[in-house]
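re: ur question from earlier - yeah i can do the single chain one, its not a big deal. heres the input i used so u can compare w yours
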Amino acid sequence: MFDNWILPSVLPVGAVLFDLLFLLMAISIEAYCFNSRLKFDKKTSIFYAISINLFSSVIGWIVFFMLEPILPLNLKSELINFVFFNSFKSPNTQTLIILTAFIIFFGTFIVKLFLLRLFSLSLNEDFGKKSEDPPSVERQKWRYMSRSKLISNNLVSTMLIANSLSYSAITLVLLIRMK
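and the output i got, formated as tokens:
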């Protein structure tokens, strides 16, 4: 799998600039969602949005560059044609792109949710501290389980809303670009 790795001789500057635009859009939309739904302050919301979007973007590019060498020749040709000329040669490619878009959406949703949970657990100030007067063990377990369940559902719904809004905005920009 790694024996076909070569450095590209042409850099698609337009694709890189659009990726930066999409990152900025996603960061601002998701930070607003974190601020309004999770009640984080603005600085924390922006930090989480920047962190999860940059990490998920890097993971996405790594997956893309690992899958690109094993694509069939006709799909490589369509991909290059779309990146450089913003058009498709084959009409069958559009259905494949729609399927790929759904896979990418849910893949990034899962990655972003995992990263948000990881960052929120690792940056929590109360995480790892012991209280001076601990309640009974069974009561403490029940509180922890109910609290983690509530936080988990709130994180999932917030991340789904934030990811949906950012992907909707990105899709709108792509539709405007196509015209």
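The CA atoms of residues 22 and 170 lie 6 Å apart. not sure if urs matches, ping me
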